Amino acid sequence: MKEIPFEIMxxxxxxxxxCFHYKDPVANFMISSGVPKELVQRYKHEVKFLWSRHxxxxxxxxxxxxLVQRRILTNLCSLRDLPDKExxxxxAGLDALRKLKNLAIENELVVKDEKRNIDHRRIxxxxxxxxxxxxxxMLEELKKKFNDGLIxxxxxxxxxxxxxxxxxxxxxxxxxxxxxxxxxxxxxxxDGHFNFGGFDYLVEAKWRxxxxxxxxxxxxxxxxxxxxESTRGLFVSINGFRSEVIDEYNGRGAKIIFLTGMDLTIIxxxxxxxxxxxxxxxxxxxxxGMTYYALNFID
Length: 299
Hints:
Elements: H1 6-18, H2 23-32, H3 37-42, H4 48-59, H5 63-77, H6 90-106, H7 112-150, H8 155-172, E1 177-182, E2 189-196, E3 199-206, H9 214-225, E4 231-237, H10 243-249, E5 256-260, H11 261-268, H12 274-288
Parallel strand pairs: 3-4, 4-5
Antiparallel strand pairs: 1-2, 2-3
């Protein structure tokens, strides 16, 4: 195996001398890099600079030893901080590491794993950026459709559209969502279903000119109560809820949270994600018994 250039070997020595304060961390670092224990102990009585120079010199006598040298180089170049917190001159230690990494790069001795890690982080960053851009584009499209629905005179069509919009919005936030369906007995119409935080949520979606009355919400509560104990409900009313209806269900164990058109607008504008919006509303309901918590309060 080809020998490591002399200047890099000397810089490794500088790193051992300046990046460590106590000898035990040096010994542990060498052993973890593959240096035989007997070789580590043989020169441990010397100062760190001489100790590491002797060890590197003996390793240089065989191909196996030169492989260990490269492991030492790799492990030093992988450090993000000084391995010994007791070092008195941290700047000198960090500077020694920087010089070693630069020399390793110049001589194309950076470990392949390190290169792969760098490439992987770069690719991940690019993918995250692309996903954010795509999500922002899809959110903008949903916002435009929502605004179109606001001026649609056909309220039945708007109601169907709301169900589709909610389905797309949940999918965009990586929350599995089941669209409108009827129960096996064909006695109940469910506008949607999703699972969040270990609980099942039934969805009731209304996009009408008037606000839902107490009996409509009571009917939705009946649907919830007929399911498993862990089932809750999300009632979506684009035109909001009457204050007396909200008061009627606050702190009554109704297991329902309310979402309005204003809340939905804030979500579609990207000011808060659907996931965070649900999390906040559920926390308020669980901790304070608030059936409705307006998202504009978080601005």
